[in-house]
Amino acid sequence: MNKVFKGLEDKRETGDVWFDELKRTRDIGPAIVSKRYEEFNESTKSVHAGQYDDPTTNALGTPIFQCSTFMLNENTYQAIGEGRGRDEMIYTRYGNPSQWSVQEKLSSLENAESSIVFSSGMAAISSALLAMLDKGSHIVSSRDIYGGTYNFLYEDLDRYGMSVTFTSPTDIAEIEAAIQEDTKVLYFEGLTNPLLKIAPLEEIVALGKKYNLRVIIDNTFLTPYNIKPLDLGVDLVVNSATKYLNGHSDLVGGTVSGSRKLIDRIWPQMLKNGGSMDPHACFMLERSLKTFALRMRTHNANALEFATYLENHPKIKRVYYPGLASHDQHELAKSQLKGKYSGMISFEIEGGDEMAHLLLKKLHLPKEATSLGGVESLISLPYNTSQASLTKEQQREIGINDGLVRLSVGIEDIEDLITDFNQAIKQIF
Amino acid sequence: MLNNINIAGLSEYANEVKENNIEGIASYGVVLDWVSGTKTKVKTKNMILGNHKLVRDFEFTIDEPTELLGVNSAPNPAEYMLGGLAGCMAVTFMAGATLMNIEVDKLQLEVDGELDLRGFLGVDKDIDAGFPELKFVFNVKGNGTQEQYNTLMERVMQHSPNFNTMKNEVKMIGDINS
Prior knowledge:
By secondary structure, chain A is of the alpha/beta class. Chain A contains 16 helices and twelve strands.
């Protein structure tokens, strides 16, 4: 598989060879059989890309390669010797056909050369950041990021001799002003939690180019169905696969996608940190991804309709949803997201947190739970979940007002969700 | 990996540079601050490799022996220069050995030279201030043959950047701000 010394064996012995003659070039993947379905649309890619049909039994669908290790042979020994172990089956933390299969599907959906799946979103994020940052590096990010990522940046980076500045995720002048001599990475979320602010990706990528930086985007709230950050020049895209990618609230996972060059640098970091995805989880994720586009279409459509319903409800003070004209960045949403505004809504209810809690108790369909992106609607209050580490005043500073509710709109029938909200609001007011 | 050198990665990089020459352009720099007497501190500037910044957060101290008016707290400039030469030749040697399928158990380089400080002091205007010659010796233990090592040393002299910087006439462009 793309060997370094193919045809150079004799010259290698005599020394009549130098680096310019080496044969190995970077390829996409790794994959047993690369089937990207590049010319097809999202649902077709979701169903078919990456699937490995077993040639021995003709079984349809990727088998679960539930093994920790693989029998070694001359090829694997040679690969280990040459440092191209990522392309061979050696040990499941290094690579496994179940991982490769789902990684190929993800690469197809992200328009990436290569992807790695991890045992959690935070394993993906921490490995990607540690692989990209040098000793002494500085990173520009935003306070409007997932709490786990914030904690990693705020609490752990200085242990590695690195530092971070938190800025607005939307104010490009503020982001530029935060760039220092040692800044190496700009890290933002495509759509922020919980106020659904949109990171202006084209402008952030332009800043990256201007200052020779890498841009990493956490696209969990949007997914590659709604936007493909790599197409806009982002270097790496990370996702919590726990959310929309898996979509059934029954798996924890993470993904990183990008060029083979950069993903090959994250791979050894993953080997050191651990955090590889188990083959059974790979099977579940790949199986779930077959309905990814189908689910996302419904999430998006339901959320737009539900946001409109909420905005017209007299007991709802404010709705945050990029698809509404009232959203601060609606124009950017239209141009960047092209009508695909995600399944996430936040809103403020009359009567503050007390009424918000009552609302959650009276609802029958949405489950009162953290996380998002499941087929079932999930509802929670940011103040005592995702943003619980902030004081009330700090919460207000970033716009988390009294009575703010975060709703991950599921794929239930929208009229049922509206009926359920109507009965719940009627009971509490 | 043979000699812990990722030859597959080197192959990928060489082919990338063939396709996209800019990826082979590496800019380096250092900033030196005088501390006191003969003592100075050097910080490495960030590199740009291709189009991307690499953060180089390293520093080292330079001094002179007490006999040469320093306080002998660190290697002197000549020693750093010889160390930089040896380090560069060692990297080139090890990558080349891996290319030639030689497993190296031990590599030690010695670099020696003699300055005539009459050049620095200006005592004799006919004497150049620099090293007139540098001698280097590779002490190698591994499974290569003498013939292979000879070839390898020729390759090092051909491809080591620092070796060639010292061997060649380098255009020195100076300026002063005050």
